[in-house]
What does this fold into?
Amino acid sequence: NRTLKTFTAGIFFVAISSCGLISGGKGRCEKYTEEAFGKFQMASFEDAAKSIKKAIKCNPVKSQNYALQAAIHESMGDTATALKAHSNVIKYDSSYQANYYYYASYLFRLNRYDEADEIIKGFDNAPNKQGYNPKKDAANKVVLDKVDRLRRSIEMAREESVIISQLEIQNMGPLIRYSK
It folds into this structure.
């Protein structure tokens, strides 16, 4: 399960870094980010978390640092920090469509379907955000397909949750005591 978390979180961050969002600059902040990414790739999550914390302290508005922080903490199973980091990614780069998919996808994996559905709505609204640049921010065909699958999965999961709860209630029938 930890391997799957690491793989999924890794895909999330690699997708962001492959889009050129992780700069090749060698300033102090970028060195912390690169150091964190290297440790993350080596599955040294505790060390990666310390390095990305330094990068965020150095540049607290760079969304890519929060994206890496989310990936690291997803891999560590630290849900609270991962969720906060995902939220910060969108806070500091609300026009980049894929950010919404990654956040909603994580919420879905946590069985938080209503929240995932709300976040994925931001995907559609991103082109209306100030600073939206279609060449940089628009989702590619692969991400668009993933968003469609995620939307269908959310709907199916909700339906299954209702069915399961109805079955649980039906199975409790003999256990229910009526008070007079």
